[in-house]
Write a structure and sequence with these properties.
298 residues; 11 helices; 39% helix
Length: 298
């Protein structure tokens, strides 16, 4: 199968393209710089520039590009970068696939459980409504930008991803060095739910979506049992065999992170209903398993 991928150099994108290529799929990588290899094609999401012919012959398109949410403090300028990188990028991809005479069978767009906002102790799944706040509003517009592909009859799915447990990259990649140094601990009260997923299961779930015609619309990519931050903290200590006595008070987080601290301290108790109902089998559903798998991945 010929599969085009944006964001192929990121944590999830690099793992996904490696897995797909190892199974013999042909990968077309969309990049924002001059192409350096025959499998690369240039695009410019800021200008909504992408020649649809670059996607000709692709049976699937996976769109994962977007600026890192937690990389920098959320100034007004940074929030515009976060918004434009997702909404303009998705609109560009959706318009390109919709313009093809023979469009791909599926468009899989990256998304986030930030859609649900702070859910407290309440369970939410794909049928739940959106939350409030910058991230929730961003995800709504992000997913809505794929409308041209949906209107063209292309099966379009949104991978609403939780916190990916990976040793390198992403939010968890920053946690591992702290916990290994014995400096890890709960954030705020530690009562906020973290909806996590191992990197292995994240990639397997994406491939499951690509291969399952019945899956379209939002699909939560999280493990079945989210846990409070204090229990995640305890699990990190168990697996790494380190103390977890440190705590980061909520006021300190707000001082360091600004507006983003509200999402770090917020609670998201997400159920992956559509994955479970479609028969997806997790390899590492428990937090200790997910942490151990991340450590073994090198």
């Amino acid at each position: 199968m010929r599969i085009a991928v944006t964001g192929a150099s990121g944590l999830i994108g690099s793992a996904l393209t490696t897995a797909l290529a190892s199974d013999g799929h042909e990968i077309v990588r969309l990049v924002r710089r001059p192409p350096e290899t025959p499998d690369e094609v240039v695009w410019d999401p800021a200008r909504k520039a992408l020649d649809p012919d670059a996607l000709a012959g692709c049976q699937a398109v996976v769109h994962l590009a977007g600026a890192g949410v937690g990389d920098r403090r959320w100034t007004d300028e940074r929030k515009k970068v976060l918004y434009d990188s997702r909404v303009l990028g998705t609109a560009t991809i959706a318009a390109a696939v919709a313009a093809l005479d023979t469009p791909p069978g599926v468009l899989l767009c990256g998304s986030a459980i930030g859609y649900y906002g702070d859910t407290g102790d309440s369970w939410v799944d794909e049928d739940s409504g959106p939350g409030t706040g910058f991230l929730a509003e961003l995800v709504q517009d992000w997913e809505a930008a794929a409308e041209p592909a949906t209107s063209a009859g292309i099966r379009t799915a949104f991978a609403r991803t939780g916190l990916v447990v990976a040793r390198h990259g992403g939010a968890w990649g920053r946690l591992f060095p702290l916990f290994k140094a014995g400096l890890g601990g709960r954030l705020g009260s530690g009562s906020q739910f973290w909806s996590f997923i191992s990197l292995h299961d994240e990639i397997a779930a994406m491939r499951h979506i690509l291969d399952t015609p019945a899956l379209s619309g939002p699909v939560n990519l999280t493990a079945p049992q989210p846990l409070p931050n204090r229990e995640v903290t305890a699990a990190m200590g168990r697996v790494l065999r380190r103390p977890t006595l440190a705590t980061v008070p909520a006021p300190a987080l707000r001082l360091a992170l600004g507006e983003f601290a509200g999402d770090v301290l917020g609670s998201q108790r997400v159920r992956p209903t559509r994955l479970l109902e479609s028969g997806f089998a997790y390899a590492f559903p428990e937090i200790d398993q997910a942490i151990g798998a991340a450590l073994r991945s090198g």
